[in-house]
Amino acid sequence: MIIDEKQIKELLDTAAASKEAVSMILERAGIGRGISLEDAAALLLAEDSDTLEALFRKAGEVKDKVFGKRVVLFAPLYLSNYCTNGCLYCGFRSANKGVGRKALTPDEAVFEAGTLLEMGFKRVLLVTGEDPRFDLDYIISCVKAIYARTGMRIVHVNAPPMDTGSLRKLKASGAGVYQAFQETYHKPTYEKMHPSGKKKDYDFRLEAMDRALEAGFEDVGIGPLLGLYDYRFDALAAIAHSKHLFERFGAHAHTISIPRLRPAEAGLDEVPFQVSDTDLKKIVAVFRLSVPSAGVVVSTREGAPLRSELLHIGATQLSAASRTNPGGYSHEKGLEQFSTNDQRSLPEVMASVVTEGYLPSLCTTCYRVGRVGQEFTRKTISGEMEKFCQANAILTLKEYIIDHALNGMKEVLSGTIEEGLKDVRDPSIKNSLLAKLKEIEEGKRDIFF
Fold this sequence. Notes:
The protein has 449 residues and is of the alpha/beta class. It has 2 domains: 305 residues, TIM Barrel (Alpha-Beta Barrel); 59 residues. Helix 3 runs antiparallel to helix 11 and helix 5 crosses helix 6.
């Protein structure tokens, strides 16, 4: 995997496309099968308000076409904030001395996961720093313990890059998506921001997704840390990265995250390259049109109003109730990786999703039935995935209502299910869905399409 820095800069150094040219790009994008790197660059260069509104509108249409109205909700679970890397922007950086460090034991990881289950979450993303004391065996022990001792249905992992053999072992433990962010694809900036530790090896990190797919991970998650370098370069490079994975493995990145640089203890004093809210909206829209099959993930780094806006222009996954320190769900104090902006509970985020006209989803089905990798990419781009997403979102929402929703929320979410059923157009799926909903009312769980 090589990022062609010269090509990306040349694409971004061209004159802004005319409104007519952008209109033609958006027409092509509306098919929902992706656009070229050249087209993506032209959209990233757009600045005038009318063009941006057209871009946002088209991205929202494509999102609804490929995934329907469902919005997936999940939570991160931080295992360890020990780290030997020197990343200048991160609260976990090794130079941050005299602060509380903690690594959860497998028992503590199980307790944290259990706390998330009690909230209603069905999927969790394990996150850890890079330290040889808390290595692959440690991560695997936590993954296996959570599966064995809780009802968590899928465990994803955001962990430091590893060799192919190690990634194969991680996959064999039951991990779903493997996620590692390049942070910035601009190599000079990367080297400046990562002065020490294993993470300073730009190429080893860049090639991590190739190794993960070679090791058997069908789904991988990528993303730049927006604000370290020009967002246009990093966004276009992330699209190029996903296209490379598609060309080599037949599957795009399963998720593309859009974290903006946030304050962190002993981190950077200021953001090197400011990314405005409008810039972030543009990035989300261009990711949606360029890689229609990818889940575009918005974390609690962003505030509630902006997260709601982003749902309308292509975002499909939200973290909720997040804590970015190990033990955070048990209300344990400790070193956080970064500060959060949206501190709402899961019910509050659900209510917000409903208010925006979307369907909260706690679905984990695709990972567990093998609808992953090449098949997921193909079904999504062809328009086949929307019917599964809608139906499974309704089923998981029904479970949540019965098992977790309090008065008030029960009525709100029940009305959402009724509205969601109206959007199920396939008669056979609708009849089966109604039968499955009755089964849930009778006590069955974990029913899906």
